Recover the amino acids of this structure.
């Protein structure tokens, strides 16, 4: 069984770089066969706003990342990690984030 770290490294290799929050949301949404319009309704945002998030044109807060995870039914920690790492990349900081429940 692969660890979370090994799985992440594998996905990043396939993606030719780090997995962004938008890519994470889009991949889970598509795997669960949820349309952008449906997820946008559940998140109380416009479809255009969701599209901007998925394409990396908009970043989200840790709080909103947690809400995406809960609405989609996935672990909050992976969504919050991806959102925080997007913010670090935008700031030009080459850092990784580890998130765990308090």
């Amino acid at each position: 069984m692969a660890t979370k770290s090994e799985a992440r490294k594998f996905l990043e290799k396939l993606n030719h770089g780090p997995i962004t929050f938008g890519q994470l949301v889009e991949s889970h949404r598509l795997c669960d066969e949820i349309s952008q319009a449906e997820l946008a309704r559940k998140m109380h945002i416009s479809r255009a706003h969701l599209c901007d998030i998925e394409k990396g044109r908009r970043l989200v807060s840790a709080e909103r990342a947690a809400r995406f995870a809960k609405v989609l039914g996935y672990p909050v920690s992976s969504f919050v990690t991806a959102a925080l790492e997007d913010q670090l990349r935008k700031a030009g900081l080459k850092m990784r984030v580890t998130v765990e429940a308090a």
Observations:
- The two ends are 26 Å apart (CA to CA).
- DSSP finds six helices and no strands in the chain.
- Residues 76-90 form the longest helix (15 residues).
